Amino acid sequence: MTEIWLHNTRTRKKERFAPIDRENVRMYVCGPTVYDRAHLGNARPVVVFDVLYRLLRHVYGADHVRYVRNFTDVDDKINATALARKETGADGSLEDLIRERTEETIGWYLSDMAALGAMEPTDMPRATGFIPQMIEMIEGLIESGHAYAAEGHVLFRVRSYQAYGALSGRSVDDMIAGARVEVAPYKEDPMDFVLWKPSTDELPGWDSPWGRGRPGWHIECSAMSYDLLGESFDIHGGGNDLMFPHHENEIAQSCCAHPEGGFAKVWLHNEMLQVEGKKMSKSLGNFFTVHDLLEQGVPGEVIRFVFLGTHYRKPMDWTEQKRREAEKTLRKWRTQLDGVESQAVKPNLEIVDAVADDLNTPLAISILHRLSAEGRLEELFASLRFLGIGSDWKDGLRADVETHVDGYVAALIEALLTDRTEARKAKDFARADALRDGFAAAGLIVKDTPQGAEWEMGPDFDAAKLEALK
Ligand SMILES: Nc1ncnc2c1ncn2[C@@H]1O[C@H](COP(=O)(O)OP(=O)(O)OP(=O)(O)O)[C@@H](O)[C@H]1O
Ligand SMILES: [Zn+2]
User: Fold this and answer.
1) 373 and 238, same structural domain?
2) What does the alpha-carbon distance between residue 84 and residue 100 come to, in Å, rounded to a whole number?
3) Which of 38-47, 78-87, 397-406 holds the top average pLDDT?
4) Is 84 a member of any domain?
5) Are residues 269 and 383 in the same domain?
6) What is the pTM of this model?
7) Residue bearing the bigger pLDDT, 444 or 344
8) Residue 235 pLDDT more than 80?
9) Which of 273, 306, 328 is the last residue of a domain?
10) Which residues does Zn(2+) bind (predicted)?
11) Which of 40, 94, 104, 215 has its CA at a distance of 20 to 30 angstroms from the CA of residue 317?
């Protein structure tokens, strides 16, 4: 049986993975706050943990893995988005607008992530569906002295949990020095964090022993993972931007509420997708969405392939060059694999082992290239499926993939037409003529109109010939 090794953030070591119960391997990954479209950075953990999910299913059997990824649908950012819409005159109560916004965002998220070849987790709980469980956990924490109520708030008493900070390896005092902790009159200690807070009349709220209010973000994950996976489970994942405070707080809450449990055994964190050395993030405004890229005609599997080219514990940039290379490789393989049937063939063992070695997907990709070069096409096909690339090449996704390719070709044509306009402007007639002849040779019919060039693919249209014109 394949041995899986994973780098555990908690111990800072690569450890051999041994599930608590091999019949029921359990993983929890922090999901998105649903107030806006997912940016490309948000997609990275989705792809990383999808690769792990597929590996676990491969090793332990598809029916023996439970993968939970939540939707945070209670949050000030969601409320702010809905309030802004209400202020611009949108119909409906604030509650309706909030629900509309979260439903819409969840729909976008699921279709964008499906386009990246990510399987849906077995469970996708929403925070609003687990409020009673959160209240129950908070009550328990108050009873055991780990939390206290003050002015409609409930706070977690950080100093009551000795091991606080162990995940990121920092002491409470270091963390206070480094973090922007909020000082508030109702806090015993600035480090204490909110489990429950009061709601105003118009904001979403639930009745609780502390008045009408809403949960803090961290308690959501503790309550949902306990309800669905129990007091101890195998793997907890998320981006490394969540390590502190979110994951430290989850650990503190869960370990104090269920001291016998131990919560998650292995903690896995993906590094960030960056833009010029900085985390891609909404607050920095340096982001583009997955949807933007798909709309531009970049196939989802190309995005996935680019992600897999960098190890999950290394920061990465999205670059045009990586996109182009991934697209070229996948096109080549697609042509090579035309007509190959291999439902019964297993993925290449070295590739499975590479993924099992702390998700070494760059190594897996180099082996894919070797299989292609050696013409081991059935293995190549099965291994791509295992990595979630073109997993449905033979089935329904084919048409979808073709529209993506069409999008790519359309973008290419537009780029070449711009190129021609610029060549004409610069009086580079040699280039302009070469493009005109090239279009004709590729079977592309171009008509110049006062509104700009219009084009149409003729009966002998050949995209490969256009490619050569770049
Ligand atoms: N640039 C990034 N690279 C990789 N993962 C990221 C990046 N930004 C966010 N994530 C991950 O995306 C997931 C969803 O996070 P969340 O919904 O909190 O993001 P957000 O608050 O919408 O985004 P941002 O961090 O841009 O404000 C988390 O697992 C988080 O670690
Ligand atoms: Zn979480």
Assistant:
1) no
2) 13
3) 38-47
4) yes
5) no
6) 0.84
7) 444
8) yes
9) 273
10) 30, 221, 246, 250
11) 104
**Stronger pLDDT, 456 or 440, i.e. the higher one:** 440
Predicted local distance difference test score (pLDDT) of residue 407? 65
Residue type, 459: P
For residues 85 and 283, give the distance between their C-alpha atoms in angstroms, rounded to a whole number: 20
Using a 6 Å CB cutoff, which residues line ligand 1? Answer: 30, 32-33, 41-42, 44-45, 238-239, 241-242, 270, 272-273, 279-283
Confidence of residue 448 (pLDDT cuts 50, 70, 90): confident
Q: Which atom of ligand 1 is nearest to the CA of 33?
A: 17
**Domain end residue (candidates: 353, 374, 403):** 403
Per DSSP, which regions of 326-411 are E strands?
Answer: none
Helix (H, G, I), strand (E, B) or coil at 266: strand
Ligand 1 pocket test: which of 27, 39, 42, 44 has the largest number of ligand atoms within 8 Å of its C-beta?
A: 42
pLDDT at res. 391: 60
Q: Are 444 and 466 in contact (CB under 8 A)?
A: yes
Question: What three-state secondary structure class fits 338?
Answer: coil
For residue 329, what are the domain limits? 320-403
Query: Are residues 131 and 206 in contact, defined by beta-carbon separation less than 8 angstroms?
Result: yes
Mean pLDDT computed over 452-463: 80
CA of 279 to the centre of ligand 1 (A): 9
* CATH number assigned to the domain comprising residue 215: 3.40.50.620
Residues 153, 193 contacting (CB under 8 angstroms)? no
Q: How many domains does the chain fold into?
A: 3
Both 334 and 352 in one domain: the answer is yes
